[in-house]
Amino acid sequence: MATDSWAQAVDEQEAAAESIGNLQIKEKPEENGTAAYVTDSTSAAAKTEGDNNADDDDKEDKAAQSLLNKMIRNNLVSNTNQVEVLQRDPNSPLYSVKSFEELRLKPQLLHGVYGMGFNRPSKIQETALPMMLAEPPQNLIAQSQSGTGKTAAFVLAMLSHVDPNNKYPQCLCVSPTYELALQTGKVIEQMGKHYPEVKLVYAIRGNKLQRGMKLQEQIVIGTPGTMLDWCSKFKFIDPKKIKVFVLDEADVMIATQGHQDQSIRIQRMLPKNCQMLLFSATFEESVWNFAQRIVPDPNIIKLKREEETLDTIKQYYVLCNSKEEKFQALCNIYGAITIAQAMIFCHTRKTAGWLAGELSREGHQVALLSGEMQVEQRAAVIERFRDGKEKVLVTTNVCARGIDVEQVSVVINFDLPVDKDGNPDNETYLHRIGRTGRFGKRGLAINMVDSKMSMQILNRIQEHFNKKIEKLDTDDLDEIEKKMY
Ligand SMILES: Nc1ncnc2c1ncn2[C@@H]1O[C@H](COP(=O)(O)OP(=O)(O)OP(=O)(O)O)[C@@H](O)[C@H]1O
Question: Start and end of every Helicase C-terminal domain (predicted)?
């Protein structure tokens, strides 16, 4: 539906952003598929930006990205790779289970697991669960991408290990942020639904307890700073009674200043025989170094990401001189071929806002996703797009990762992906348009080139992947059609 409210809202946004320092722009999807802006002058400052700079606010915010992933995901990310297991004691047998029954869970927990709709353990759970539930307890470092079942696995381990008759904390779980802690808490509540004797408390800032009190809940989940305070300064928790210590999202944790140190200080207060479990979506060296300090004598489980490939993708580029020309080229493409749903990537929030406005004016149903939106709002936009309520999703870099919208067969790089030094960001390029073998549906990628520099970037991307990116003449409608089909 064409509407001018978009353009007007964008203008207002930009005018306001230029004049007011402390302004955050929130965006809320409306019923009619366009968006309305709500301004909130009490929130943190949103920076104004030039069209040539990538969004400052769009810097990768790992915690927000991780939260977004959790919010938009409603089932397992399947993975056909084999898990790699490194056992502390290579001579001990390696168990893996194909069913939850084999784990001899408490009936209340089995009930909880099935109640969540899980039929069988996920790939990582097949190996991780027997290790975590073994007697004596074993330490574990596990790495696999988001959505492969790590949270569900350690929640099940915590619930299995607590003794509900003991009214004191027995499991501690630290998460990088308040919101992530709440998400994990929800899983504990769902899985423990039929086990009401086990109680949970959140060690998060703002949850103020009376001095001198002792917690009765068996599971404490929270952020490292508050958890540390509760163990040492306030002594609400007796760390010597802890049986299981979980450190979730280690890669996100180390990105936050102070968290590493606080987590290590908590860990040092725990008894030697406490089971230490650490989870991470990625495993770069810094994560690994941290993991080794948190988890002594670990078993290690890794599940490689499924590789994305460009093999089933047709890649084109279009030569233009300005963003207006790029927009015109886009309109020509839309005029020539039927595009069910497309994602369009822009370098800056400003361009994304402008383009969304222009497309909307042309009659497209557009959704806009950009870094300054709150995570809940981003999740809502993605869900609407997934449900087909909007046909075009315009987004900035920050939203490129993590969102899997399988039905999208057309990806348009309105701006080519570059890193902060202006070099081609091959990884992001692959991630935006690549497909895993499983979803090997054919796809179409169109790259807009508007300067010598962007042509060079395109050439470097082409060389990197050793896959030809063909030129497309968008003034020739016949050519577009011929090439696409
Ligand atoms: N065995 C299973 N069978 C079916 N669904 C599952 C199973 N285990 C987990 N899930 C579901 O899959 C989704 C991802 O699981 P989970 O959150 O545990 O993954 P994760 O690896 O911890 O991801 P993240 O790091 O994003 O939290 C959730 O919706 C969860 O309910």
Answer: 312-480
The best mutation among 68, 144, 150, 278 to test binding of ligand 1, ranked by most ligand atoms within 8 Å of the C-beta, falls on 150
440: CB partners within 8 A, 6+ apart: 311, 312
Distance separating alpha carbons of residues 221 and 319, to the nearest angstrom: 53
Q: Which CATH number fits domain 313-484: 1.25.10.10, 2.70.50.60, 4.10.520.10, 3.40.50.300?
A: 3.40.50.300
- pLDDT confidence bin for 403, thresholds 50/70/90: low
Q: What is the per-residue burial (b if ≥16 Cβ within 10 Å, else e) of 168-189?
A: ebbbbbbbbbbbbbebbbebbe
Q: Is 152 in the pocket of ligand 1 (CB under 6 A)?
A: yes
Work out whether the CA dihedral 140, 143, 146, 149 comes out positive or negative.
negative
In the three-class reduction of DSSP (H, G, I as helix; E, B as strand; rest coil), residue 350 is classed as helix
pLDDT digits (tens, 9 = 90+) for 202-240: 999 889 999 999 999 999 999 999 999 999 999 999 999
Is the backbone peptide bond immediately before 29 cis, with ω within 30 degrees of 0? no
User: Whole-angstrom Cα distance, residue 216 to residue 312?
Assistant: 56
Q: Does pTM surpass 0.80? A: no
Q: Say yes or no: do domains 62-303 and 313-484 share a fold.
A: yes
* pLDDT: which is higher, 287 or 19: 287
Task: Name residue 299's amino acid.
Answer: N
β-sheet bridge partners, residue 240:
none
CA of 231 relative to ligand 1 center, distance in Å: 30
Pocket test of ligand 1: the residue of 103, 122, 287 to mutate, having most ligand atoms within 8 Å of its CB, is: 122
Q: For position 416, what pLDDT does the model report?
A: 94
ipTM beyond 0.95?
yes
Lowest mean pLDDT among 161-170, 294-303, 429-438: 429-438
| pLDDT, mean over the chain | 83
| Residue 458 pLDDT exceeds 90 | yes
Atom 9 (ligand 1) nearest CA: 149
Residue at token pair 């490129």: 400
Quote the pLDDT of residue 90.
Answer: 77
Contact (CB, 8 A) for 207 and 139: no
Amino acid present at 331: C
70 Cα–ligand 1 center, Å: 9
Average pLDDT over residues 237-250: 97
The domain made up of 62-303 is a member of CATH 3.40.50.300:
yes
Query: How far is Cα 125 from Cα 153, in angstroms, rounded to an integer?
Result: 6
Q: CA–CA separation, 455 vs 423, rounded Å?
A: 12
Give CA angle at 328 (323, 330), nearest 5°: 95
